[in-house]
Write a sequence for this structure.
C-alpha cells in the first residue's frame, strides 16, 4: 500500500477542527514534501518523524513522500501532527495495518528518540472526540488532562513503540478522572486574616454574591491586595461544565494543571502588561488574562498605572462576557466572564486623606493621576470602596473575625436564589431582566430618582445600583428591594458618575 489517511485535530481558539493527514509514497528521488498550509513548526516535523521512526527501529522509506494536511486552507501550527504523520508513513509502507487506526484520533509531538512529548490544547480536542464517540491517542503526559472527559477511550503512550503495541492489541484504556480534592478555598488567604476593614469585607461579600466588579481605593499598606486575594475563596466551587470551560482555557494557553481542577482562577497581571496580554492576540489569536480569568477573578492592582489604552479594551468584554479577536488569517472568540477586582491609591504618593501622613501631591497632580482611569470604565464598576489605613490598635487586637467559610455559605445561598429566579447572577442581568426582577415600591422609586439627580448618575450607573440593591436583598433573603438596600447600594457609588 502506498497511501494512508490518519485522523487528527487542529487547535483553533477553543475549537478543534478535524484534519486528515494524507500520506502518499511515489517512485522517484527520495524526498519529503509537506503541504496543507503548515507553519514552520509543522514543516520541521519532517526531521522529527524521520529520526523517531529510525530510532524506534522502523524502516524509513527511500521514496518520494508527500504529506497533505487537509483541509488545505486551515493554518496548521505546532508539533501535534507528528504522531499522525509517523503513523501514516507506517501504514503506507505496510509496517502497520490500516485497521489499527480506525476510530482513533491521533495527536502528539515526537522527540528525536521516538518519545511522545506533552502538548497543549488536549482538553478541547478530547471534548470533540468524545462527542463523536471516537478514541484518542495522545502522549502519556497528557493522560490526566484528557481523563477529565469521562468515558473517553484513550491510548496514552510514552513513545511511538508503546503506541504501536497498544494499537495492535486494540485495547484502549478507559481512564477515570484523576483522584483530586475538591476546590480548596484554603489555597487563598482566609478573610479572618484581614484586620478591621469591615466595610471592604462587606463589599467583597456583595461582589462575590452578585458577580459585581469592585474597586478599592486607599493608601499603601491598607490591605487592598490581601483583600483581593481573599475574594476567590468566597466564591462557590465550579460545577462540572464550568470546570471544563476553565480547564480548556488553561489547556490552550499554558497547559492545565489537574491539581487545580474545579478551582476558581485568580489572575493578577502586572501593570506593564500590554493590551494583547490582557485581552489576547497574536497572529494566531491566543487567550489573554481576561479569558484565563474566566469564571474567576481578575485583579488589577495599581489601576491608574496601566496604560489608558490597555484599560479601555476591557469595556466591551465587561459588558458582553466574551472577547472577539480578528486577525488577517484567523479569528477566535474566547469567553471572558470574570469578576474584576481593582485597586488604586488616592494620589501619586498614596497618602491623600491619610490620618497621620501628609500628602505631597498638588491638586493638579491628584486630578491628573485619578483621570488616568476613564469615566466609562469606572462607570462599569459596581462597587467603589474607600479603604482607610488600619489603626495600630487593630493590628494587635484579636476580635472574632468572620471566616471565608461563613461568608461563602451566605454567598452560595444568595447565588442560588438568583439562579432560581433569573437563571443568571444579578451582575449579568440585562436592562429588561432587571426591570422584571428589581421591582421598586413608589417610595423606593422616588429615592432612586432623587439619588440620580443629586449624584448625577448615568442610566448605566442607575442600573448597576439596582443590581447591587437586588444582591443585597438576596443576601437578606428579601423578595423586594427595600429602602435600606438602596441606601447601602448608594454608599458604594462615587459622587460623580455621570458618564453616558
Amino acid at each position: 500500500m502506498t497511501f494512508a489517511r490518519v485522523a487528527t485535530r487542529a487547535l483553533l481558539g477553543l475549537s478543534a477542527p478535524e484534519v486528515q493527514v494524507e500520506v502518499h509514497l511515489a517512485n522517484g528521488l527520495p524526498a519529503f514534501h509537506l503541504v496543507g498550509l503548515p507553519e514552520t513548526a509543522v514543516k520541521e516535523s519532517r526531521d522529527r518523524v524521520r529520526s523517531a521512526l529510525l530510532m524506534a527501529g522502523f524502516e524509513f522509506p527511500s521514496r518520494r513522500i508527500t504529506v497533505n494536511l487537509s483541509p488545505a486552507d486551515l493554518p496548521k501550527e505546532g508539533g501535534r501532527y507528528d504522531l499522525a504523520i509517523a503513523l501514516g508513513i507506517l501504514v503506507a509502507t505496510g509496517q502497520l495495518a490500516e485497521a489499527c487506526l480506525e476510530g482513533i484520533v491521533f495527536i502528539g509531538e515526537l522527540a528525536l528518540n521516538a518519545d511522545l512529548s506533552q502538548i497543549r490544547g488536549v482538553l478541547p480536542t478530547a471534548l470533540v472526540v468524545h462527542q463523536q464517540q471516537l478514541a484518542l491517542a495522545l502522549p502519556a503526559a497528557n493522560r490526566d488532562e484528557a481523563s477529565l472527559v469521562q468515558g473517553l477511550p484513550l491510548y496514552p503512550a510514552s513513545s511511538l513503540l508503546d503506541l504501536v503495541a497498544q494499537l495492535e492489541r486494540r485495547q484502549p484504556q478507559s481512564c477515570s478522572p484523576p483522584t483530586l480534592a475538591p476546590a480548596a478555598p484554603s489555597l487563598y488567604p482566609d478573610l479572618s486574616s484581614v484586620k478591621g476593614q469591615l466595610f471592604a469585607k462587606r463589599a467583597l461579600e456583595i461582589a462575590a454574591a452578585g458577580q459585581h466588579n469592585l474597586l478599592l481605593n486607599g493608601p499603601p499598606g491598607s490591605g487592598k491586595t490581601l483583600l483581593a486575594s481573599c475574594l476567590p475563596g468566597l466564591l462557590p466551587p465550579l460545577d462540572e461544565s464550568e470546570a471544563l470551560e476553565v480547564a480548556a482555557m488553561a489547556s490552550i494557553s499554558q497547559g492545565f494543571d489537574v491539581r487545580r481542577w474545579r478551582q476558581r482562577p485568580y489572575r493578577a497581571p502586572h501593570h506593564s502588561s500590554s493590551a494583547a496580554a490582557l485581552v489576547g492576540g497574536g497572529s494566531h489569536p491566543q487567550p489573554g488574562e481576561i479569558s484565563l480569568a474566566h469564571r474567576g477573578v481578575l485583579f488589577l492592582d495599581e489601576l491608574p498605572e496601566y496604560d489608558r489604552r490597555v484599560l479601555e479594551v476591557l469595556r466591551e468584554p465587561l459588558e458582553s462576557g466574551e472577547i472577539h479577536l480578528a486577525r488577517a488569517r484567523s479569528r477566535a472568540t474566547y469567553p471572558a466572564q470574570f469578576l474584576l477586582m481593582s485597586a488604586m491609591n488616592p494620589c501619586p504618593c498614596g497618602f491623600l486623606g491619610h490620618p497621620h501622613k501628609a500628602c505631597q501631591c498638588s491638586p493638579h497632580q491628584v486630578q491628573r493621576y485619578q483621570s488616568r482611569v476613564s469615566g466609562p470604565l469606572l462607570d462599569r464598576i459596581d462597587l467603589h470602596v474607600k479603604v482607610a489605613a488600619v489603626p495600630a490598635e487593630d493590628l494587635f487586637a484579636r476580635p472574632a473575625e468572620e471566616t471565608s467559610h461563613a461568608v461563602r455559605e451566605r454567598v452560595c445561598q444568595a447565588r442560588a436564589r438568583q439562579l432560581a429566579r433569573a437563571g443568571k447572577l444579578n451582575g449579568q442581568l440585562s436592562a429588561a431582566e432587571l426591570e422584571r426582577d428589581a421591582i421598586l415600591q413608589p417610595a423606593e422609586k422616588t429615592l432612586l430618582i432623587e439619588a440620580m439627580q443629586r449624584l448625577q448618575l448615568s442610566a448605566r450607573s442607575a442600573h448597576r445600583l439596582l443590581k447591587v440593591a437586588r444582591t443585597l436583598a438576596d443576601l437578606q433573603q428579601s423578595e423586594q428591594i427595600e429602602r435600606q438596600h438602596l441606601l447601602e447600594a448608594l454608599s458604594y457609588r462615587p459622587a460623580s458618575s455621570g458618564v453616558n
Remarks:
- The CA atoms of residues 458 and 499 lie 6 Å apart.
- The first strand starts at residue 3 and ends at 9.
- Residues 429-500 form one domain.
